[in-house]
Amino acid sequence: MNQRILFEKLNNGDMVYIKDDFEEACIRLSASDGHTTTFLKHRGRKEVEVSQSYEAVGNIILGGEEIGKEEYDKY
Q1: Radius of gyration (Cα) for the chain, nearest Å?
Q2: What is the DSSP-derived secondary structure letter of residue 46?
Q3: Phi-psi region for residue 63, left (φ > 0), alpha (ψ -120 to 50) or beta?
Q4: Block means of pLDDT (10 residues each) for the chain, length 75 residues?
Q5: Contact 52, 35 (CB under 8 A)
Q6: Is the pTM of this model over 0.85?
Q7: 36, containing H or E segment
Q8: What's the number of domains the chain is made of?
Q9: Who's near 6: CB < 8 A, 6+ residues apart?
Q10: For residues 51 and 38, what is the distance between their CA atoms, to the nearest angstrom?
Q11: What domain range includes position 37?
Q12: Which domain of life is it from (predicted)?
């Protein structure tokens, strides 16, 4: 995903969902008070909160594509 677009969406208070087929996972990002919260979700499992420094998160941000909430929830 384009880093500039991601940064703008988070600064606007938007929830961002990104899926990466290579990592076989999705992430959900939200920001408030200058802090970004990251959740990781594998297919058919519940999401878990992870550090943004977690390696898979960086890979998903760089190589993934933005998806909608509905697709994220179904993943």
Answers
A1: 11
A2: -
A3: alpha
A4: 92 96 95 92 96 92 96 95
A5: no
A6: yes
A7: strand 35-42
A8: 1
A9: 16, 29, 61
A10: 7
A11: 3-74
A12: Bacteria
